[in-house]
Amino acid sequence: MSDFSPSNVTAVLLAAGLGTRLGLGPKALLPFRSRTLVEVLAEVLLNGGCREVVVVLGAEAGQVLASTSLGRAEQLGIRVVVNPVWNSGMAGSFLLGVENALPGDHVLVALVVQPGLTADVVRTLLAAHVPGRVTAAGYRAVSGKLRRGHPLLLDASLRTLATDSAAGDSGARLFLQANPELVDLVDCGYEGGEDIDTRDQLQLLD
To answer: Which residue, among 128, 129, 124, 147, has the nearest Cα to 193 in the 3D structure?
Structure first.
């Protein structure tokens, strides 16, 4: 079990995918709040209390870097790593992100496809975290049922276990399924957890 403080949390923002189903190029570059989705969400993670954000790029990484301020943002606490085999599945990007998190830090994993993510959600997860456990955002369906989503906060003591189980298109999912007793689900309400996967969901950017 490890000590916990919000001051030793690295966020990993997974933004390597091409968004094939959407057909608009990398989702990281979707326009959002007069900037790009990846820039806004990296800032949200910092504003929520994470001390650094590791952004994992992959598809058209050169274009993403050229079209955003990410490459010039390291002094602000944003660091970019590139997964050259991004199309082999999410596991590679998850592993790369966690490996590049600051040594000994707890790791908060977020997805670039969630425009509804807010700094308040990040702060809520950090405040709720119990050492030695996983804290995951839970979002309510219309029925009221709570479902697990992102971000999720991996305790530093669980980093190796989580990465050892990553494979294919699964980041931490196999680890979470195998160890449900370690997961604390935090109610984050009805909004914020929906991903952008299809053009119908582009309205989430409005």
So the answer is: 147
pLDDT tens string 61-98: 999 999 999 978 676 899 999 999 998 888 999 999 99
- Give the length of the chain: 206
Contacts of 69 (CB under 8 A, 6+ apart): 39
End-to-end CA distance of the chain: 42
All residues at 6 or more sequence positions from 85 whose CB lies less than 8 Å from its CB, including other chains: 58, 92
Tell the residue number behind the tokens 């984050």, with chain if given: 188
**Burial grade of 17 (CB within 10 A; 0-12, 13-18, 19 or more):** buried
Residue type, 171: G
Q: Under a CB-based contact definition with an 8 Å cutoff, are residues 14 and 112 in contact?
A: yes
pTM of the model: 0.91
